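Please produce the structure of this protein holding heme C.
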Amino acid sequence: MRRFLLATLFLIAAPGAVWAADLARGKYLLHAGNCISCHTDLKNKGPLLAGGRALKTPFGTFYGPNITPDKETGIGAWSDADFIRALRQGVSPKGEHYFPVFPYTSFTRITDADLLDLKAYLFSLAPVKRANTPHDVAFPFGYRFPLFGWKLLNFRQGPDAADADRGSYLANALGHCAECHTQRNVMGALKRPMWMAGSQDGAEGKPAPNITPDKETGIGEWTVRDLTYFLETGTTREGDVVGGLMAEVVEHGTGHLSEADRQAMTAYLRALPPIANKIKRK
Ligand code: HEC
Ligand code: HEC
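Below is the modeled complex.
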């Protein structure tokens, strides 16, 4: 928050001089939101943010699109307003609804100032020409029109007052931890009373553990140091190296945060209501 205020003051005081600072912040936010994992075909060593990463869901396989500033195959022709609308409302420049596999349900909570820095950084990167891989989704889930109804019922547009707390902002608006660590109802919406209490079939059908401070079924036995160290290195309290999708979250996301931000995220998670919910590891 203080950084944001400083940046704002700076903007008013010296408009010409902010550019470099914005880009550094944009890059930081790119990691905080872990945009890289879903928008880069890491498995096949694809170019950064040029799309093609397969995301398996019960409805079929979605592919992260190209978000480099290429004008034809990426988002190079987008205005600032287009970008804000996509992440805040889950609506494309053509007015189509996005599938919530793109976690705009969380990103909706990112502030305008941060979205603009994020876009500025994306637009400072080299454009990569790579046509998007079409989603491979079974009827009727491939249609965008019903998403309108889904959003009416299940989507709450941000920003969110709870994010005045930096830890909440990092975990919920940017880090979208709940998208994997919270159970979903039959409609695929997150069950709010079970916030961060784990999901037996999280992303790609893998269990995501309970990360509330419940001592028996969550991570209540972890110390503050255990948790910040985990977010930095991916090494658990038991000394195991975390695997699967969480390894990507640490490698491209939380591992790049400042120590102060990892501590803020830790403080937020430790202050969550402990929820007893046993997740079986497969
Ligand atoms: C969990 C995977 C995931 C993460 C994390 C993710 N995205 Fe995406 N994103 C997607 C998918 C999948 C789509 C395509 C959705 C659709 O077609 O309806 C998408 C679409 C987009 C689009 C629209 C592209 C277009 O051509 O219309 C933008 C812009 C975007 N994401 C930016 C971001 C940014 C910025 C971040 C990080 C803050 C991010 N995404 C993080 C999966 C992800
Ligand atoms: C894409 C899905 C996904 C996202 C997003 C995600 N996680 Fe995870 N997380 C997992 C999975 C899956 C595991 C279990 C990995 C394993 O054991 O191999 C895990 C494990 C963990 C653990 C270890 C818990 C234990 O009992 O071993 C912690 C702590 C954790 N995540 C915190 C977070 C935080 C904080 C965020 C947000 C910054 C986050 N996760 C975002 C999927 C995710």
